[in-house]
Amino acid sequence: MNHLSSGLRSNLLERGASLVGFADLKDFPAKDRMDFAYGVSIAVAIRPDIIRGIENGPTLAYYEEYVRLNEQLNSLAEYTADYLKGHGFEAIPQTTTRVVQDRNALRTPLPHKTVATRAGLGWIGKCALLVTKSFGSALRFTSVLTNAPLPAGIPVNASSCGTCTRCREACPGKAVKGINWSPELGSVNLV
């Protein structure tokens, strides 16, 4: 499986992914993971100039980047599913066009953030966004559910925010409560 996972990771990074991780999802209800035991988490970083431009709220450039990233993530997820199927496994990309349950909120049966934390890519910050050591929270995610027994990363089960309050101080709506995340708490209670 190391050859499969290293080949997939390498191909995804060449196609524009910023981070790739593999998750063991067997602890979650079968219906939430569509009966698949593993997941692939794929992230693409938001351009730094776009992040700097939204200090006072969303902009047209941010919206265009959001649309571009969603298209890129859908493409990467479809590629991942095809790659795994080509190696004899089943896979379902959790794209906006395939498995989104709520088109208004763009929700998938198993949240992308959950797959990412289980893959060890990052933690949920006090702002309810997924935070990574490499990119902070300036990322967009997608995920693919599969039966391919990919070597899983070490799940992140606690926040690394500690006493940091930067997101709380930066939030113009003062919505961030400043609570450290844990899987039991969930992200709904953070904002």
TrEMBL record:
InterPro entries registered for this protein in UniProt: 4Fe4S_Fe-S-bd, 4Fe4S_Fe_S_CS
Transmembrane regions listed in the UniProt entry: none
Domain 4Fe-4S ferredoxin-type: residue ranges: 152-182
Keyword Lyase belongs to the record: no
GO molecular function: iron-sulfur cluster binding; metal ion binding
Keywords attached to this entry: Iron, Iron-sulfur, Metal-binding
Record has tRNA-binding as a keyword: no
UniProt name for this protein: 4Fe-4S ferredoxin-type domain-containing protein
Species of the source: Thermoclostridium caenicola
Native organism taxonomy: Bacteria, Bacillati, Bacillota, Clostridia, Eubacteriales
